[in-house]
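Hi everyone, sorry if this is the wrong subforum. Our group has a chain we'd like a structural model of before ordering constructs, and none of us has done structure prediction before. Sequence below.
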Amino acid sequence: MTLGERIKLARKVAGISQEELAKKIGTRQSQVTRWETNKATPRIETLAKIAEVTGVPLSELWYGNDNHEQ
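Answer:
Right subforum, don't worry. Here is the predicted structure as tokens:
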């Protein structure tokens, strides 16, 4: 699973839209779309905000929860 797919999954499990996530972390919805489609990679500071908002550990967003993904 890609980083973008993990961000999207975390957002959906948290029950929030791209627009809501964008507002909570201080960016635009179009940027969230770019991350989720792997057209861009968020900075680690931004990824930490996504983790906080979605309740997913930062390490799980970055690496995934399957050791073989690394």
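For your construct planning: The helical segments are 3-14, 18-25, 29-36, 44-54, 58-63. The chain has five helices and no strands.
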